[in-house]
Design brief:
Blueprint: H1 12-18, E1 24-25, E2 28-30, H2 38-47, E3 53-60, E4 66-72, E5 75-83, E6 99-103, H3 106-122
Antiparallel strand pairs: 1-2, 2-3, 3-4, 4-5, 5-6
Length: 132
């Protein structure tokens, strides 16, 4: 991601990866521009049973899993929420939650979630397949 696109108000843990151009963690990918996952953020706002909001910064390429930073009182926090929305057309009143899990920050999300997904992916796909 181009440094001028990275917002200084985003938590340092996220900026830490983006400024180093470490955005691809197959099968997960971090955003390449700030509005890339707006539709997922809108879906989360409509579908989360706790009525929270997130700034979505990552998606998993083989399903509709996303990771977002919780927004509290207009501020993007360190807390990562992993979720799987259904992308309904309006506000959802279901009783089950789209949230899969939550982490304290991007580092915890990466080490406890992404690395395991990468390991699982590597069991079925050769690294050379990622080249192109």
């Amino acid at each position: 991601m181009k440094p001028e696109i990275i917002n200084s108000n985003w938590p340092n843990a996220l900026r830490w990866f983006l400024v180093q151009n470490t955005e691809s963690f197959c099968p997960w990918h971090f955003l390449s521009h700030s509005t890339e996952f707006e539709s997922a953020a809108k879906a989360f706002a409509n579908e989360d049973t706790k009525n929270r909001m997130v700034f979505v910064f990552a998606s998993r390429q083989d399903n509709d899993d996303f990771a977002g930073l919780e927004i509290v009182d207009g501020t993007i926090t360190d807390k990562v929420i992993v979720f799987h929305p259904v992308f309904g057309s309006g506000k959802s009143y279901r009783s089950w939650d789209v949230v899969e899990t939550e982490y304290n920050d991007v580092f915890e999300f990466l080490s406890n979630h992404i690395v395991q997904d990468m390991k699982d992916w590597a069991l079925t796909e050769d690294a050379s397949d990622l080249l192109g």
